[in-house]
Task: structure prediction
Amino acid sequence: MPGLGWATDPHLNFVSPERLDCFCGELIAENPEAVLLTGDLAEAPSLGGILTRIEQNVQRPVYFVLGNHDYYRSSIERVRNAVAQHCRASKWLTYLNTAGVVELSRETALVGHDGWGDAGYGAYWLSRVRLSDFELITDFIGLDRGALWRRLRELGAEAGEHFRSVLAQALPRYRNVIIATHVPPFDRAAWHEGRMSEPGWLPYFSCKAAGEAIREAFENHPQCRGLVVCGHTHGGGEVDILPNLHVTTGAAVYEKPAAQRVLPWT
Ligand SMILES: [Fe+2]
Ligand SMILES: [Fe+2]
Result:
């Protein structure tokens, strides 16, 4: 069927190879044409092996972005370079950060970028939250609060620039665009236990710069429809940002990787 078998935050480094195979089976149970993964697939040391096992299992295009956990025990640059190299040698894998606009049909395109919790929403300076990211990703180790804020803002800005560029290409050509990202790009999409995340968590649970770029693009193209799919907070929810822009945040549970609904296209 013309659709994307979607999953988010499977954290496959926490499960057995047999459980991973079973998860892949679930992803393609409805025989979608392709698969979409919105990050936190594994951690850096296991990511390559897990990507290989996924593509061997599903035997169809696998589009993906990475989440913060995928960088654990390495650096952002090292992981992105390794993944880009892995994709070049692969028949099925496409890392959306480097893919531009992917045509799914004459009417529908797919774009994507990791995004990052960019300290744009919520109360960064008052927050007592300290993510494992800041101990386990080399880029953040040893940064003081100010330097960390600047780095998070830069990572968010990079995602925003990416979406501005790919949506400027996609929206004049396609009526429907699916936007894949790891971090919810709006505060109202940062679902946690059925409500919006607390102000102390929002800086890390939303990517404001990406959201501003996405919202602006769809405001300027009211004839187009956008569906954002994301994860990261592990709390599921739905929200309309504009009449033509909807966000689905996928729920996830550690050690229980599961497929979300298939995303159909026309
Ligand atoms: Fe996650
Ligand atoms: Fe995450």
About this structure: The CA atoms of residues 7 and 260 lie 5 Å apart. The chain has a mean pLDDT of 97. The chain has seven helices and 13 strands. The chain has one domain: 3-264.
